[in-house]
Design brief:
2 helices, 22% strand, alpha+beta
């Protein structure tokens, strides 16, 4: 049975630092320079929540069901 995972990134809180994209072990999150990152490869996400834990602005919420 696979996990249902949802990643939400707050545009208001995010300062586009790139930490989430750099630390994701499965390259789920991508970011263009000067843009808010986007979770584009959700099929690869393992729900580790590393992006959520390391975000300095608490802009990422990962829900694993």
């Amino acid at each position: 049975m696979s996990k249902e995972i949802k990643i939400s990134i707050s545009e208001k809180r995010c300062k586009q630092c790139g930490i989430c994209a750099a630390l994701c072990p499965k390259q789920v999150i991508e970011q263009e320079v000067g843009q808010v990152p986007v979770a584009v490869h959700m099929d690869k996400c393992i729900g580790c929540k590393l992006c959520e834990m390391r975000c300095p602005d608490f802009a990422i919420d990962v829900e694993v069901k």
